[in-house]
Amino acid sequence: MGLLKRVSQVFQQKSNALLNKVEDPTQALDLSYQKMLENLQQVRKSIADVLTSQKRLEAQRAQLQAQYDKLQGQARQAVQQGQEQVARLALERASTIKPQIDQLTPQIEQLAKQEAALEETGRQLNAKIEAFRAQRDTMKAQYTAAKASTAALEGLTGLSDQMTDVTMMMDRAKDKISEMQARSAAVGELADSGVLDSPALGGGGDDIEAALAAGNQGNDVDLQLAQIKAELAAPADQTNAIGAPPAPAAIAASEPAQATTPPAPATPPAPGTSAATVAVRILSDHVYLVPASLRPALDGLDDALDQALDHDDADGFTRLLAQVIELVRTNGTPTDDPAVTAEVVVPAPDTTLDEAKALVSDDANQDASTND
């Protein structure tokens, strides 16, 4: 036996096995019943077509018969009036109509026979359909009962797929419980022997780990403090920009700084701007003219961003960057004037922590090369 023939036989065997597995007898019975109904509908349509043709031929024959009778009457009337030529003409026309009537009569009779035969076929098919429908309902009920009985027996004997899955789940649960019990016993023995307290294992005596944890906690506190300062500065500066009096907390916070820090020399405004605005560029966006009263809020958020960069806090950096961009877009006015030079450059909204570090590193390298 050749290889191709063997492969073909194997494929046929697999296909038959798959079809036998997915075949549903109830669906097959429903399909057969549906096809029988379609055949009955086709027979009824054929009866209607034959009857339509018969009626059309009968109407045509009646029309020709009326013409024939009319010509015969006209011929008789012409003979009575002595018009023999007119009578001859009428009889000639009637003689041409008579063969047509004689041809239509057998055709009508043939159609009547076909109609009767189709009606008998339809009655027989309808009777078969009714008998099959009753048999189909009985077979479907028997199949459903047998299927339910088989499923119940398989469930009782543990042969069904569901019972097999339940048994496997119980076995896995037992294995998991045994594993956890063994692990608990092992950890208990290690705790009793004092091995878990060893610094090498990161136990309670690991003072280096504790120091690192304390340092990280201090860094988190510094970062949170910078964020709070920036958030408090932003609302106060926005209120001053509108014209309302500053909050008492903001005044109290600013007085010590004025007492200890000498006033810085006034910085000239950037080209294209005024002393009342600050030009802020958002990369991949626009340049915005922001009220100068918001400069402290921008500086506070800038310090918080530096803290996030220093502590590798990606979430904090993303949140603070969104606050800066929201502050600039909400209070600033976009401008496309090429004469405006940005005093503050804000990274793009989708800038990551690593990309920001790269920007800062490139900026530092440029400053170093400029100083050299």
Automatic annotation (TrEMBL):
<dbReference type="InterPro" id="IPR054437">
    <property type="entry name" value="PspA-assoc_dom"/>
</dbReference>
<comment type="similarity">
    <text>Belongs to the PspA/Vipp/IM30 family.</text>
</comment>
<dbReference type="InterPro" id="IPR007157">
    <property type="entry name" value="PspA_VIPP1"/>
</dbReference>
<dbReference type="Pfam" id="PF04012">
    <property type="entry name" value="PspA_IM30"/>
</dbReference>
<protein>
    <submittedName>
        <fullName>Phage shock protein A, PspA</fullName>
    </submittedName>
</protein>
<feature type="compositionally biased region" description="Low complexity">
    <location>
        <begin position="251"/>
        <end position="261"/>
    </location>
</feature>
<feature type="coiled-coil region">
    <location>
        <begin position="47"/>
        <end position="81"/>
    </location>
</feature>
<keyword id="KW-0175">Coiled coil</keyword>
<feature type="region of interest" description="Disordered">
    <location>
        <begin position="251"/>
        <end position="273"/>
    </location>
</feature>
<feature type="compositionally biased region" description="Pro residues">
    <location>
        <begin position="262"/>
        <end position="271"/>
    </location>
</feature>
<dbReference type="Pfam" id="PF22743">
    <property type="entry name" value="PspAA"/>
</dbReference>
<feature type="domain" description="PspA-associated">
    <location>
        <begin position="279"/>
        <end position="366"/>
    </location>
</feature>
